Amino acid sequence: MTVVTRHEAPLVAVAVTALLTCTLGCTGAARTGEPPTTTVQRGTVSADIHTAGEFMATRTQMVTAPAVGGTLRLIQIIATGTRVAAGDVVMRFDPSEQQFTLEVSESEVEEADLELQKLDADRQVQAAQDEVNLLTARFDVRTAELDVTTNELLSQVLARKNELTLEEARRKLAQIEEDVRSRAKTSQAALTVAAEKRQKAVFARDRSRQAIAQMEVRAPFAGIVAVRSNQDAGGGFFYPGMTLPDFREGDVVFPGRPVLTLLEPGAIQLRARVPEALSTSVTSGQQAHVQLDGSTRAPLPATVRSVSGMADRGGIFRPPTAQREFDVSFALPGTIDGVEPGRTARIRLEGTPLRNVLSLPRQAVFDRDGTPTVFTAQNGRFTPTAVKIVARTQARVVIDGVREGTQVALTDPTAAQRPGTPGAAPPAGTRR
Known about the structure:
Layout lengths: L8 H24 L4 E3 L1 E5 L3 E9 L2 E5 L7 E6 L5 E2 L4 E5 L2 H53 L7 H59 L1 E3 L4 E5 L24 E2 L4 E6 L4 E8 L11 E6 L7 E8 L17 E7 L12 E6 L4 E8 L4 E3 L2 E8 L2 E6 L1 E5 L3 E5 L6 E3 L23
Antiparallel strand pairs: 1-23, 2-17, 3-12, 3-16, 4-11, 5-7, 5-10, 6-9, 7-8, 9-11, 12-15, 13-14, 13-16, 14-15, 17-22, 18-19, 19-20, 21-22
Helix pairs in contact: 2-3
């Protein structure tokens, strides 16, 4: 229960009286059907522009999940807002699948090594056997050649037998030499195939080791971590206004998916947006004052660095009648302690005051068929009067065409007299 002290009682009484007066006045206006009114004032109009901005890092980098085969399970991730140094681990993934692949590839490498050893041993044994066979065949050929030299002393039948024996020995030697060359080529081809198989297994092993090393993702530079939303949490379904949770431990992440953003706190700038109708009043080098939200420090001086050359049309869900906005970036002197990316602030852009001018609230000027119009009170009625807009500020419109002190309506009094109309004419300067 709230207790009103003796010193606060007069203030409460004044507030209650003002509230009752406003309520009775609005009730009377609603009962009589008369619109609220204001008067044309002459004086100085402030051209300052008030907007909200956000500090953003000029150097950012998305940190993605490793580009390895299969899905990944997140087992550790640094929380948003955490400061990390270059090389610090910012997230870890479960390496079980990659370790299994590594064990399989290592066993394949060992199997390939054993196969190579066996092929080499078989080749050496076969080479020794071929050498023995060659020596035996050459000996047989030499023996047959010696026997042929004695043919002059033998009968024709025995001489012919010796010649046939020599021919057979030479044919056998040629066959053995051909077999040796063929087996050498076959053995070499088998060794090449086994070596390729081993090399493939080595590549798979090295790739698995590299994938295991990538399960620990490290910060490329010192900065602040900002965890991104899990775009796969909706199961491929999305609707306007849907809120997606941030990545967290235990989530399944697809390879190459951006998981977090790293912001460099030492390189930040202030960015804001101004309505399209006021964008022409903002120029490069214009002075501004920045008040940090949630801070009691004095406003910080700033200057306009740049104004975007194209208005932001918004996303596909933005209404077509919504007012477009221009991006404005600000430069602040030096590094500001305690200011990090994501911090918001209120900005006041200094404008040249408009002196000795006639002005009205923006809602008192309407656009009727492309002509700025006000509804002036004359003889108990409101008459549409065309005016010329000299300048616009964030809260008021500088006009020409009516006298000082003229009473004008803040709403379109003819809207209720036009049945079937969707509502009052929009204020001048707004998009239809």
